[in-house]
Write a structure and sequence with these properties.
The protein has 81 residues and is mainly α. It has a domain at 23-69. The protein is built from 3 helices and no strands. It has helices spanning 2-42, 45-70, 72-80. α1 packs antiparallel against α2.
């Protein structure tokens, strides 16, 4: 019984971790982009450019997690039906 339960829970737990990671990367990336906007409009060009670059890296990481880890299992299951 416990083996069946762990076989069911492990993919769900893995999916949940990837969803939380992608959401956190996206949220923090958006916060950095907003902060870079505030820095750039305030005249802090170097800090604003750094924050914009870091925000883009975080948004790209969120996109990569979403496309590489979250969508392939669903693409494979929908194409086999």
């Amino acid at each position: 019984m416990y083996q069946k339960l762990t076989e069911l829970l492990l993919p769900v737990l893995e999916l949940g971790i990837y969803v939380v990671a992608a959401a956190l990367f996206a949220a923090v990336g958006l916060l950095f982009e907003y902060q870079s906007y505030l820095f750039l409009t305030g005249g802090e060009l170097l800090v604003g450019a750094w924050a914009a670059g870091f925000g883009l890296i975080l948004l790209a990481a969120s996109y990569r997690i979403t496309t590489d880890k979250l969508t392939p299992p669903y693409r494979a299951s929908s194409s086999s039906e």
